[in-house]
Model the fold of this input.
Amino acid sequence: MLLGRTANGLYWMNRYIERAENMARLVDAGLRMALTRTQDASEEWNSVLLSAGSDAAFTQKYQDYTAANVADFLLRDASNPSSTMASIETARNNARMVRTALTRETWESINEAWMALKRMLARPIDERDLPSVLDAIKRETALIRGSFYGTMLRNEIFDFSQLGTYVERADNTARILDVKYYVLLPSISWVGSTLDNYQWESILRSVSAHRSYRWVYDADYKPTNIADYLILNVRMPRSLTFCYRFLAEHLKFLGDDYGERHACHATAEKTQAMLRAGSIKDIFDTGLHEFLANFIRDNTRLGDEIAQDYRFN
Amino acid sequence: MASQGSLRLAAFDEMLPEVSGLRRPYSAYDRWLKEQDPARLTEKMQDAERVFRKTGITFAVYGEQEASERLIPFDIVPRIISGQEWRRLTQGIEQRVQALNAFLDDIYHRQEILRAGRVPKDLIARNEAFLPEMIGVRPPAGVYTHIIGVDIVRISEDEFYVLEDNARTPSGVSYMLENRETMMQLFPELFQKIKVRPVENYPQLLRQSLAAVRPQSTKGVPTIAVLTPGSYNSAYFEHAFLADQMGVQLVEGQDLRVIDGHVAMRTTEGYKQIDVLYRRVDDSFLDPLTFRPDSALGIPGIMDVYRAGNITIANAPGTGIADDKAIYSYMPEIVEFYTGRKAILGNIPTWRCSEPDSLKYVLEHIHELVIKEVHGSGGYGMLVGPAATKQECEDFAKKLAAKPSNYIAQPTLALSTCPILTEKGLAPRHVDLRPYVLVSDRIQIVPGGLTRVALKEGSLVVNSSQGGGTKDTWVLDD
Done:
């Protein structure tokens, strides 16, 4: 038994920790593209913003898609609620609210991440420092995750936290794919071009999977394999299937603990079954974009249902 | 705002009094201190700050936009009290706390002390801290004020005075606990050399104490919760800390509602009944149906549940009438009336400005006195006469003359000092002491308390909101 408000705090704390890190990863991938491509990188920055769901807010504020503008907006802009700094701030506020549910190690790692990032992101980032800032962000969130996994009891507190993490992560991976789905579509004229190779690598990079991909598939980037990896691979920690495996598992734990099943259980299981039965060929046949749009919608609904079913909406 | 310019008074130093040299309780500590490398001590001081920041032991300062979370400065020189001194203090505190509870029970029932003419009727009837809603209500186990912080000052070797009683929602106990924790982390060797009585079982005692005053109708183990105004409250850290240490839920008003005559909290499995509520929300916010209708911090209808005896509220609503600054001046009479003995711990002589003779005296001697608002707290809205400028005194005199009953005055006492560590070595600073008292079927006082220290040289204002710091407080096991 937990206070509904506590469950809410845990859920959003973890969504925002995940989001803070995802922003850094997206900027990292964008930076990589900008550095390796000789032509204008603004298109790439545009898709970074689209993946972050922040393009509309960005264009209200800026005219140019430059590395400095995008990095500033996604990493440190307080008016962008999804920026790394705003996300860490929200995560910490939630952590403060649910402090009694966290181990001392977990709370301190969040508090220290907040202190470190506040210091680091206090002023606009010098382009020369951007790589080290991105590393530092990923390191801080890794420390949070480490103390969380290393010290938290595997009870309902853990379950609600994990639900937040995986709902956010699934959403993030699906969006990254959806923004670039067209470069994954089979197209005779483009296949194997250098440009595509960059694009594919960029997708993998934004989910930190450009190295592990090679361990699983051939060394060459193939669009079907990339889509398979990010959508269906059961061992890839940011794939949709992986996220749903854990969403279903933690919901099952809650259902068993409380002796009650809710709408969210059915929703998660339905998505999980769909992912398990599907092949990448089916997905391409029905349309990658449609598949992803449906997934994102269902995933959002799952989040709403969890909040409603466990009384923290 | 209080003026706190430099003020020089010949004060009694608890470690190194000028007359007699090093005092006994500090001898072992002094030996250790002399062996320490000053550079290492400075390093330890910085360590302490890091520990506090990392754990997030912060408080919010009202009215400050920037740096809304600040640390209360911590000094690494402990304030040391001998076992003998402590025994004397505890006798006085116990007597006082007994009297406070007896007074509250009387005031909300037969009002014998008013009939006997020992306390003026007016003082109660016209007092905002008196809650007519509590008349005739007897709280579970008959306890009104369960958790009390008694602020004590020392003037000399033998003179202790009570500065004020905190019978509503005294705060600061988390600092007592974290200060000790920090000291043990920084100087483990000290605690092997010197036998200091432990304070860390306070949360367990608090939990037992709250469980012991559960409503009679409670079946089985009572469900206890701490009620906080929320994470933006200045004492939120402490609320979370206590709930955590006791292993109970930390709730806000929005989590609670009245269901079937009981207070229940909204959980992931539906509503669950609460038996004992340790509330850190003021009376007026407790129940919008009974008190302030605009309050979003409280629980509509909780007062009905309370009157029906179905929940314990700690401290009980209406306890403020016992620690009101206007009542304070009657405490010697109150203690004698209910315990039949003279008060062991004295009061500081107090002029009630509501009385014409006193007002005249206070206005004439404003430069010598400390003047406080009757309902004020946190060191806001007070005047320290000897430290104030002429202009400040004149301005204050105008406020005072306009609403005399709003103020009391006390002589400017030379509070005892205790050394703090500065860049130039040890330096004396004024201190006070707040021991924490738990009342259930018995009275328990944790050996220690919160020592607040005015960090500014010469300053007498120890409140954290006014630049005060804290020290670990040791009661020796001797």
About this structure: The longest strand of chain B covers residues 425-434. The interface with chain A takes residues 53-56, 230-231, 236, 240, 243-244, 249-252, 254-255, 265-270, 272 of chain B (CB under 8 Å). Residues 1-7, 61-67 of chain B have pLDDT under 50 and may be disordered. The radius of gyration of chain B is 22 Å.
